[in-house]
Design goal:
The protein has about 300 residues and is α/β, with parallel strands linked by helices. The chain has 9 helices and 11 strands. The protein has helices at about 15-30, 55-70, 85-90, 100-105, 140-160, 185-200, 210-220, 235-245, 280-295; strands spanning about 5-10, 35-40, 45-50, 75-80, 115-120, 125, 165-170, 200-205, 230-235, 250-255, 260-265. It has an 11-stranded mixed sheet, with helices on both faces. Strand 1 (about 5-10), helix 1 (about 15-30) and strand 2 (about 35-40) form a beta-alpha-beta unit. Helix 2 (about 55-70) crosses helix 4 (about 100-105), helix 5 crosses helix 6 (about 185-200) and helix 7 packs parallel to helix 8. The longest helix is centred in the middle third of the chain and has 19 residues, at about 140-160.
Amino acid sequence: MKKYKIAITTGDKLGIGKEITKKALDKLSLNQDDVLIIGEKIDVNHDFLEINEKENGVFCYQSLKTACDLAKKGIIKGLVTAPVSKLELHKSGYYFNGQTEVIENLLKHDNQKAQMIFIADELKVMLLTRHCALKDIHLSIDEIIFQTKILNNFLIKKYNIQSPKIALCALNPHCGEGGILGREEIEILNPVVEILNKENINITYPKSADSLFAKVAKEYLSKEKHSYDAILACYHDQGLCPIKAIAFDSAINTTIGLDIIRTSPSSGTAYDIAGKNIANPNSMVEAIKLALKLA
């Protein structure tokens, strides 16, 4: 089988994945040999692997498994995934909290862990925890150090930033107010920064997320030079609410920490408009462009 730069899965059969994939590819006019489509057949000038599964959740999982199997064989260097419903996966017996977790399960080796980072041009936000309830958020010194090193290496290798500057969000409002509003900053986050700084990783002490994102949003919207190369958010909505608010169509969900780069548009399955040919493909366009750049 010939090799490709990227594969694109068409995503949930009931959603907009097939539509935005076709629209994006029509808009980009890429080299035919750069892209392999996996999932449902679409009318584009690219090779495809059709997944013949009627049950939606099984189809979604098998599309991802096929892509990951190709990645293990070195046939693809990067992966773009159209949106998938977590509920559909669960209905079919695949109890994962998202495509990131599926891909991690299929590709990880030697203690690898997938990390979720959203990228909108120079604005990059990585999550320390992903799809879990707020009450279940648990931060540990060792885990944050491990994740920060993955982010730091990613910025060095993929963006050629020699000494990345990383901003760390506090978990609690006002950085815990000296322990009054929570002690995670004192007992976990501050020690992490001290350890990493000694290893020449340039990460800030915890900053209040509201004021930090107000600053970086202003820089992004006014196209000023960014103060930080990346931001580490403690939980899902802390990082994703602000970046999606200011850059929804260009903020690309990116999986790092595994052997290949995976990107995905910021849009969901959008069942309510599926089949109406009105879905906006801009986020998918950006996801494909980023995967080709990083692969």
